[in-house]
Amino acid sequence: MNRNVYLKNPGRECPLWSSAMVVCYCDSVLDVTPLQLPRPGVTVRPTDKEGEGFFAWNVKSPRGSHILPLFQYKDIAPKKELLSFRPMEEGEMFLHDGNLYVVKFSQKRGFYLQNIYVLYHEFYAGVEAAIHGYTEVEFMLCRVYVIGRVKQLLGICWIGYEEKSGCLLYIKLFQEDIDRFEAYTPAQLSTEAVNVGEVFCAHDRFWQLCKDEKGGYFIKEKKYPAKMSVICTS
């Protein structure tokens, strides 16, 4: 399976998403030359509580260290304060504004971010759950309906249950469905499991639920050739 099919470059929310772009920004805007490859990581301010902080690039230049936020944070004002920085490693994943990202590396780009816009394997649903503090979760892929007079399909998502906490988790399959699911509470929704081997349609594409050699659930796209209609005219 080509995992890169379900990855894409970040959008406007992350204007500097690679080491190469950060180097260009430093040269053209800050007028500084990095002494080493810029690293993405987590930056913590002295006033931050546990679990707080922000994602940023750490750039070392002859002038010192420069912290460049990865995302367009609204609540971060430039201040002269002591910052702690933990670099992220290749393959590390994190959540920002409901979106899951992974740190990758190449000789051309250096470190760079990719948005996992389809959580095609339950592994990624487990990563998102773990980030929220749930580590022993069993997942099923489900159709989710809005409860009402008419059965309204809201979308497809991973439904996870952690026995020790008794928590039921709704983790979107498609990143673009975040706002749609957040508009409802779990009490307003009902679920119906998707069976292994079943083909379903979502976002104008066909998908099939499968199991890998380790028993993990994942989806793959199914492409069907369009039937051709031939009209004969005299």
Q: What attributes characterize this protein structure?
A:
3 helices, 234 residues, 15 strands, mainly beta
Give your account of this protein's structure.
- The protein has 234 residues and is mostly beta strands.
- Strands 1-8-7-6 form a 4-stranded antiparallel β-sheet. Strands 4-3-2-5 form a 4-stranded antiparallel β-sheet, with no helix packed on it.
- A hairpin with a 4-residue loop joins strand 10 and strand 11 (167-172).
- 12% of the residues lie in helices and 40% in strands.
- It is built from 3 helices and 15 strands.
- The longest helix has 12 residues, at 19-30.
- The chain starts with 6 loop residues before the first strand and ends in a 12-residue tail after the last strand.
Can you summarize this structure?
The chain has 234 residues and is mainly β.
Query: Oligomeric form of this entry?
Result: single chain
**What share of the residues lie within helices?**
10-25%
Number of helices: 3
Rg, alpha carbons: 22 Å
Strand arrangement in the largest pleated sheet: 1-8-7-6
* Overall average pLDDT: 89
State the distance separating the first and last CA atoms.
48 Å
| Main sheet summary | 4 strands, antiparallel
| % residues in beta strands | 35-45%
Structural class by helix and strand composition: mainly beta
H-E order: EHEEEEEEEHEEEHEEEE
The beta-strand count equals 15
Overall shape? elongated
Uncertain residue segments:
none
